[in-house]
Amino acid sequence: MASAPRGVTRVLLLADAPVLRRGLISMINETAGMQSVGTPGELRRALTLVESARPDAVVVELGSGRPATLNACRDIRRRFPRVAIIALATSEDPAVVNEALAAGVKSYLMINASATLLGWAVLAARAGRTVVDPQIRRVEPSAAPAVKELTPEIPLTRRESDVLDELLQGQSNRQIGTNLFISEDTVKSHVKAILRKLGARDRAHAVSLVLSARNPVCTCGRQSLTPAAL
Prior knowledge:
By secondary structure, this protein is α/β, with parallel strands linked by helices.
């Protein structure tokens, strides 16, 4: 597939169903300022396809194979942090939305989203904003538990944040080093800095502090955008 002209948002499409991939190609190519690039393919080939296509954004199908898809999203975020990830999902569950956002998804849309909404979501995700499909039921503020956000007095560096993400997934120092392409000794240094900044006794305590500080329900109306706000 031909490369996109300069100034055009390059979008790679990842979905297991060929009919969905074909439909998404049409939606993207018919949206002004966007073009489908690379070879649309299955999620199991995500890293290979992103590596070859070098897109600005990736649209993924988030359906029945959610755990594997979210792992692919984490891998994309880790290897290609500048690539915006947009999920087309089948679940309206706020907990699933939060899980996807935590995995690196920037925009979460229902599978039947219009081409216009998809285009808005892609542009917003590239700008670092979050879009949650307006079809998804909003959680009333009174229903959401009050949670104090965990904010270290000394902010974590970008690399420390990457290491913390790995800790939350239960990875060992050796595996973290492999995933982030750094030495095991460097990982240990980052872990010590994270524990110090969070005031945590050990790794388990750090993970507990972070997870307890994260709101378990989707606050779609607080930080997310609707098309009208873009």
